[in-house]
Amino acid sequence: MLGNINPIMVLPTPGMFGIKVWSDVLVQVAAGYGIDVRLNSVITEMDPANNTVTIKNNETGETETVEYSFAHMTPPQSAPDWLKNSPLADPESPFGYVGVNKHTLQHNVYPDVFALGDCTTTPNSKTGAAIRKQAPVLVENLVASLKGGVGVGSYDGYASCPITTSRKKMLLCEFDYDFNLKPSLPVVDQKKEFTDYNMLKKVGLPNLYWNFMLKGRA
Questions:
Q1: At a CB cut-off of 8 Å and minimum separation 6, what does 123 contact?
Q2: CATH code, domain carrying 29
Q3: How many domains, in total, are found in the chain?
Q4: Where does residue 169 rank: exposed (0-12), middle (13-18), buried (19+ CB within 10 A)?
């Protein structure tokens, strides 16, 4: 199909990924598929009647109207309105996220409130793997608070982004707040694509999610 299509990827970021070692790999992957990657760019308008989108380069301010036959869009994200309009929302957050300490997950104003996941101001990648690491920290600190003490649990910003690069290969990007690599399998070089990682995403991660994470066993 690659000879019959012209795939365009529009990214608002200056790189394919926030960490260079993986961004470099993804640049090569995109080039191999012939993907036209537009960095520092956003889609400002979509016209379904005419099957066109307007792409704006945030660096130059230039815009281009492109015709499409299929579009996969990621809309702007924010907290739900009931949360965004509550006192729990951080007034400095344009998205209405709950303002918490990024390590303790305790609210910055209301000490009896703790929060985790996509609704918070923690500056980590919002992934299920992140919540898995946040949950024990929140529980430890919440229980300590209920007993009148101060918890010592600390979340380091761990996130995991499994990125499929082909039908047989993937990257497993694990890192913390400081963009340090945090491999779960230290014996494997995570800087490269691996076929075994693809099996991890197809079989291992769904099993971990449904049978362990959701049941509080992992």
A1: 102, 157, 177
A2: 3.50.50.60
A3: 2
A4: middle
Alpha carbon separation from 99 to 12, 114, 121, 145, 156 (Å, rounded): 24, 10, 5, 18, 17
**HSE-CB of 87 using CA atoms within 13 angstroms:** 4
pLDDT of residue 204: 84
Residues in the chain: 218
Q: Is residue 88 part of a domain?
A: no
Q: Cα separation of 84 and 120, whole Å?
A: 11
What is the extent of the structural domain holding 10? 2-67
Q: Residue 132: what are its φ and ψ, rounded to 5°?
A: -60, -35
Q: Helix or strand or coil: residue 55?
A: strand
Burial label, 109 (beta-carbon count in 10 A; 0-12, 13-18, 19+): exposed
Per-residue pLDDT, 201: 77
* Six-digit token string for 30: 């995109």
pLDDT tens-digit series, residues 101-151: 999 999 999 999 999 999 999 999 988 899 999 999 999 999 999 999 999
By DSSP bridging, strand 41-47 and strand 36-38 are unpaired
